[in-house]
User: Which sequence fits this backbone?
């Protein structure tokens, strides 16, 4: 069986380097290209990821790279501001996209679906590739049926481009429609914004501190009791098995799929 030819976009970023480690560690995958913006250009992608030299230099132009190396799959870990343009470029170049970059919400999916149909290629959008986080969302969807109130607290490092996290948004979206409204909170805000933001009426609080990787609690409140679901990605290695599985399965999907959990059920 020939290896799947993969390009990583955002190759010098924290997650791009993690994805490269996963690709280099799997004999069914071949890293054929690596793209960045400014940092790391010209460096060997394997060495940049803390691995062996692989003879693939990080380059600066995604479209030119894809035109030259013709990958089957492109993995994108860049920034919310550019991810949609990247998806369009990837599909336009005839590759499937595995998108770990956050900032895409359910409302963006119809447009991406259009591009996917035009190109005849698939897109997996996964705000979180860690199995524990996927299970947390699944359990939250179940628990919300039995509790009248829920809030989300997520914590990441201060360099994270967006707040709240894509996982927090996905969790709030997953719980929508399955629950009653949160009760009216009577506490007066002594500091504006201290109660966090809200999506679909579910408060979300974003902590940004050095030392954190990716963490989330979903706290349910009911009569005389609370239930807390908590997930911690202690290192970025937690994302590698999910990224590798997504690269292997994206060609078998049908159009655009939102959420890593959809790859686990078959
Ligand atoms: N799905 C998941 O499981 C998961 C897990 C963790 C994080 N994330 C998400 O993944 C994304 C990346 O996170 P990170 O921690 O790796 O961030 P990061 O370390 O800041 O890396 C982002 C990289 O993207 C590069 N970049 C920016 N614009 C680009 C463009 N137009 N073309 C090519 N490369 C570009 C940046 O280049 P420069 O270095 O030159 O600025 C940087 O190296 C974020 O949205 C984050 O929330 C997802």
Assistant:
């Amino acid at each position: 069986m020939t290896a799947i030819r993969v390009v990583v976009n955002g190759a010098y970023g924290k997650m791009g380097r993690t994805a490269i480690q996963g690709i280099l560690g799997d004999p069914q995958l071949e890293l054929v290209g690596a793209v960045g913006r400014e940092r790391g250009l010209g460096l060997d992608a394997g060495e940049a990821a803390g691995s062996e030299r692989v003879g693939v230099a990080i380059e600066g132009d995604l479209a030119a790279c894809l035109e030259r190396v013709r990958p089957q799959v492109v993995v994108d870990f860049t920034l919310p501001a550019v991810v949609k343009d990247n998806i369009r470029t990837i599909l336009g170049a005839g590759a499937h996209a595995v998108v770990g970059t956050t900032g895409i919400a359910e409302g963006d999916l119809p447009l991406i679906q259009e591009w996917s149909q035009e190109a005849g290629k698939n897109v997996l959008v996964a705000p979180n590739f860690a199995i524990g986080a996927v299970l947390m969302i699944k359990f939250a969807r179940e628990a919300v049926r039995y509790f009248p109130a829920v809030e989300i607290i997520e914590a990441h490092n201060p360099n994270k481009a967006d707040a709240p996290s894509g996982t927090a948004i996905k969790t709030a979206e997953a719980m929508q429609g399955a629950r009653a409204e949160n009760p009216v909170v009577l506490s007066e805000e002594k500091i504006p914004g201290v109660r966090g933001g809200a999506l679909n009426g579910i408060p979300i609080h974003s902590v940004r501190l050095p030392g954190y990787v990716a963490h989330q609690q979903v706290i349910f409140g009911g009569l005389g009791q609370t239930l807390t679901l908590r997930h911690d990605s202690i290192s970025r290695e937690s994302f590698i098995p999910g990224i590798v599985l997504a690269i292997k399965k994206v060609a078998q999907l049908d159009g655009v799929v939102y959420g890593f959990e959809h790859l686990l059920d078959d």
User: Anything to note?
Assistant: The chain has a mean pLDDT of 95. Residues 131-143 form the longest helix (13 residues). Residues 9-10, 12-16, 35-39, 62, 77-80, 82, 100-102, 126-129, 160-161, 214, 239 surround NAP (CB under 6 Å).
